[in-house]
Amino acid sequence: MSTQVVTLSFFRFARWRDRLWAFAQMGLARPALARIPELRFFKLMGAGTGEGFTPIPDTSAVAILTTWPDLETARRRTHETAVFARYHARATEAWSIHLMPRSAWGAWARRMPFHPTKGDYGDAVVALTRATIKPTVLLKFWRRVPDISRAIGDDPNVIFKQGVGEVPWLHQMTFSIWPDEATMARFARADGPHARAIRAVRAGNWFAEELYARFAILASEGQWNGGDPLANRRAPVAQHAAE
User: Fold this and answer.
1) Domain assignment of residue 19, given as a range
2) What is the chain's Cα-based Rg?
3) Residue 115 in contact with residue 215, Cβ under 8 Å?
4) Contact criterion met (CB below 8 Å) for 243 and 129
5) Which tens digits make up the pLDDT trace of 189-201?
6) 57 neighbors 170 (Cβ within 8 angstroms)
7) Apex CA 194: angle with CA 191 and CA 199, to 5°?
8) Do the Cβ atoms of 68 and 38 come closer than 8 Å?
């Protein structure tokens, strides 16, 4: 039985004409992506600046999240398919990380796109949180984000972190990589800006829709910010479950 693979591809563009092209692709690339036979779910997103969890967009970077039936298909399609080839041709750097879902809860656009698989997950854990923020609480939410961003940036254990979103300020996704489950849990549960924000979200019912997922790393390729984000903290990658 095949294992679902979730791929998050980041692209950075140096020239303004390429940045404008990438912005236009937020709408123009959708039909081409929808025609890829094996692609079951995709989202095109912009990126945040700084530690990645800020309301200020990074106009040089975009991300594409896709789901595939297996790793071979994910690698081939995110390089050879014409729509992805155009991104690679214009980007000054690109990095893709291929993931295996290990747990998921909630909904994204009224559906659950991730299908967890049992297997040997390895040590590293990837956390993905996606939410639609209610317009009435936007100011309250974003007031808390700088403190959370600093806390994540100051944590020496986080391997990689980036904030992305489909619609600025309203549809937000945070993506982070941790060396192990225990390290991630300590950060999430420790009394600080992140824990206080979670309590406020729950008490005020700030999200119209939310999704939480954890993944194991299958593979990665390319570079980001001048190198491989996993190079210095390379943990054993996950293995497909034997069926």
Assistant:
1) 5-233
2) 17
3) no
4) no
5) 655 545 555 665 5
6) no
7) 80
8) yes
Q: Compute the distance between CA of residue 100 and CA of residue 77 in angstroms, rounded to an integer.
A: 17
State the CATH number of the domain containing residue 188: 3.30.70.100
Consecutive H or E run containing 86? helix 82-90
Q: Is residue 240 part of a domain?
A: no
**Domains held by the chain: number:** 1
Query: Is 117 within a domain?
Result: yes
Give this prediction's pTM: 0.86
Helix axes 193-204, 138-154, angle to 10 degrees: 150
Strand partners for 7: 66, 98
Residue 241 lies in a domain: no
239 assigned to some structural domain: no
Quick check: 126 and 177 in contact, CB under 8 A?
A: yes
Give the pLDDT band (50/70/90) at residue 153: low
